[in-house]
Structures are given as structure tokens and as C-alpha cells.
Amino acid sequence: MNVHACLAVDARHEKVLVTFKIENRGERRVWLPRAIAADTTLRSRLFDVRAFPGDAPVAYTGPVTERGGSDVGDYVEVAPHSFHAHTIDITRFYAFEPGEHTYQIWYAGQVIGDIRQPEVLADLRTEPLMFVHAAP
């Protein structure tokens, strides 16, 4: 698989909006978990968020919902030579400290190269990205 993923953060207006973007540079389709590609709310700790400096994890405070068996409906297809982007508001799902603080965020998950073999996964990780958030 030839895929590249990155994050962008808009932390203005007391919100933390995270945009996940994946580019499929390969010749074959790939499939992303719906949680990162299409869901509008978090059902588990999707991103690793850490205080900077110090690297202390920021607690995930949202729900933890286990999905049933994986099927095609649990994934979003990304065609060859295309990209997919999706934005999620994570503000209420992580315990951001009151006041203005610097954080680091990244995504570490997996992508499927053949939907007929969903158990065959490839790791997908973004580079860490720093952002400043001013929580009330």
C-alpha cells in the first residue's frame, strides 16, 4: 500500500477541530475504519493527545463503545490516486486543561488493503502535530 496520512488542527473559538486526511497514492483501493473517516462523534480514544512539554497524556473522557463484528459498513473506501478528508470536533472528548496550553496530537491506526480480507491490516500513523488550545 502506498498511503500517506496527516492531521490538521483548528483550535480557535474554544474548540479543537481535527481534520484527518489520507492520500491513496497506490494503484489499489484501501479502506479506513469509519471511526476516523466518517463518524461525527468519538466512540473511543481515537487520537493520542499529549501535553507539551512534558508528554503527559491528556485523558480521554468520551464514551467507549465497542463495535460488533467488522463488515464492509464499518469502513470507508479510498480509491486509487485520490484522497479523503474528515473533520471531527474532539473538544468535549478529551480533558483539556483550563487556560491556554500547547498540545501534541497524532493518529495511530490501521488501514485495510483488501476488504475481502479485513483481518489483514497495515499500520497507518500520522506525524505528531502541535497546537495551542485555550479551554474555558
Note the overall shape.
elongated
- Highest CATH level, the class: Mainly Beta
Which CATH architecture would you pick?
Sandwich
Q: Quick one: how many beta strands?
A: 9
Give the helices and strands as they follow along the chain: EEEHEEEEEE
Give a verbal description of the structure.
This protein is mainly beta and 136 residues long. The protein has one domain (3-135): Immunoglobulin-like (Sandwich). Helices cover 3% and strands 47% of the residues. It contains 1 helix and 9 strands; from the N terminus they run βββαββββββ. Strands 4, 7, 8 and 9 form a 4-stranded antiparallel beta sheet that branches. It has a 3-stranded antiparallel beta sheet with strand order 1-2-6, with no helix packed on it. Strands 3-5 form a two-stranded antiparallel sheet. Strand 1 (3-10) and strand 2 (17-24) form a beta hairpin. The protein is elongated, with a radius of gyration of 15 Å. The N and C termini lie far apart (42 Å).
Short recap of the structure:
With 136 residues, this protein is mainly β. The protein contains one helix and nine strands. A hairpin with a 6-residue loop joins β1 and β2.
Question: Could you list some keywords that capture this structure?
Answer:
136 residues, mainly beta, Immunoglobulin-like, three-stranded antiparallel β-sheet, 1 helix, 9 strands, 47% strand
Please describe the topology of this protein.
Elements: E1 3-10, E2 17-24, E3 30-33, H1 34-37, E4 47-52, E5 75-78, E6 82-89, E7 99-112, E8 121-125, E9 129-135
Antiparallel strand pairs: 1-2, 2-6, 3-5, 4-7, 7-8, 7-9
